[in-house]
Amino acid sequence: MNNAQESTVGLSEALLRRAAPSRAALEDLVVVPIFAVVVALVLGAAAMLATNVDLATVGRSYVALLNGSVGSVNAISETLTAAVPLTLAGLGIALGFRAGMFNIGAEGQLLIGGMAAVIAGFSFAGLPAIVHVPLVLLAGALAGGLYAAIAGWLRAATGAHEVISTIMLNLISYRLVDYLLRLDFIQREGRSDPISQSVLESAELPRLLIWLDPNLRLHAGVFLMIAAVIVINWLLFKTRLGFEFRASGENPDAARYAGMKAGLIIVLAMGLAGALAGLAGANQVSGVLGRASPGFSAGIGFDAIAVALLGRSHPWGVLLAGLLFGALEAGGRQMQVEAGVSIDLIGIIQALIIVFIAAPLLVRTLFPWGFRKAERAEREE
Amino acid sequence: MPAYKTAFVSLAIVAALAASTHASAFTACQVTDTGGIDDNSFNQTAWKGVLDAQESLGIEGRFLESQAETDYDANINSLVNGNCDIIITVGFLLGDATQKAALANPEQLFSIVDYAYDPPLPNVLGQVYATDEAAFLTGYLAAGMTKTGVLGTFGGINIPPVTIFMDGFYRGAMYYNAKHETKVSVLGWNPETREGLFTNNFESLDDGRAYAQNLYDEGADIVMPVAGPVGLGSAALAAELGPDALKIIGVDADLYITDPNNGRVYLTSVTKRMDATVTEVIERAMNGSFEGGVLVGTLENGGVGVAPFHDMQASVPDPLKAELEQVRAGIIDGSIPVDE
Questions:
Q1: Which of these, A41, A171, A211, B36, has the minimum number of CB atoms within 10 Å of its CB?
Q2: The whole model's pTM is what?
Q3: C-beta contacts of B333-337 below 8 A and 24+ residues apart
């Protein structure tokens, strides 16, 4: 157990160094992710061929992937709808990476945030939307932030590693949500399964494109996503707090000797990360689902880790990675409808992208011509 | 990769090919619940209805798997835009999403398995099943077969199309008790309080194993899991323990056939002929007799049933088989009420 724990921790630290690069090497930031995506698509095709899919179908499925992600208004709407929670939660994870925290708990924080948002969403009848929607989002962010701060506090006060404690908090959140959803004041009337009441209309993030087609699901959460990217970018690179986050992430000892309060920074970083994940949960219940049920997190909190890694923990990178993962999700659906290729394949492609992101040396070995500058730069260091 | 799909897409490109696959352009699209199209039970049975219609009616079929509850809306959505003549959604949990899509797209025909709208929507045909009638028979059978006097059941999620199995199973066993003055008990479900044992998912085979183990530890020697593929985990446990120690009653499909590796542990299965009703719905949509409302599968019309005993044929005593026939007749003619 101890050994396994140590190796998990060791691995997470190795990954952290990759996730929050200390020097902004352009090759590492841009070239590796691009190659990772390309190689993953090629290997995805190989996987399809290996499972007796003929070459024509492979071609058709990638055309469907493209069509389903950017090929129509509906496709773009679906891509953005899927990208919003991934980007929001991914920003939280990225913030944690920058501050040297490996937060596996976004899934749980998203669940708790979403639950708080749903309760706020159906509880306050009669509020105008202009008050109710921000209230719902705030409830989600606050609950997610507090839940994550538990792990931060455990780390700061007792040294309990956040990888372990956030995984445990995830497990607690699953059961907590099951329990909460069956409480009388939350459960929908007339249902015996765990499902919440629907949020009131005034608490719904407005749909943006229903004037075009009532099936378009894109909602105002997309503005929230862009605002969050801008705010986190400013926070990380233009404020003192952001500097303290990054300093603690790069070298905790140096940061402490420089007079920064390490414990406070850990709790704050975790709390902010959780607030962003909670916001993602609030976005789901008030923009997409309109209610909560046990599976409403749908693994977004885990995919967000991949998004943060792929985005190299840079807010704009996270946005691009979130859009890519959103596109894969929306396009993957089309892939199954049009080409009949299993939707699980999208999972394989996503996993391959992560493998190559986490192993830049592998990508460098595969494509030596893409990295000449980087190698020279390293030698000069 | 089944060949018919390849054929279908070529059909779109090379119109001449159409002649070889029946000229009909009718397309039936299906959205599965979580658990997957190859779950050996729930989703797979419903999909078989489309496959059968493909054989017999020459239609084209497509499906889209839901991987999480958040996929329902999106999946239905992408089919609404995909030239489907009818969209069949599989599962009670898709009830809200189907209703939303049906209201937004009044021209599109829908059918949903395990859900009925009240009042009915003009473009949605619900398919519901009186599975308690068939489960009543298996409860009676299990009560007659148990050596420990303890039966077990557990469900996926506490929703009506799941608990109706457990209701029937429980009451069938109680009916056996009343008739034979035995004291067989059923663990995992209380039809009065509507509380029982639920995995809260339709995916985890590990949960299926763990829940069956718990019931076995409490003395149950026959367990009926009502949770789609979760029950396959229970069957794997029963295969390790041996069918003498633990027997499983399958649900939805005849699991002896769909789960052949562990076939020997299945006492029988409560079959829910979603394949038959799905084919029926497609036929109605094709010949223009489609109307919104409800299609009910019962013991009488064969919409629900009890699978053959297969390998267990010899171990079920003949008098019990005869009693089961009587009970079946009683349920059909209404002299044995299954819902009290």
A1: A211
A2: 0.82
A3: B336/B136, B336/B175
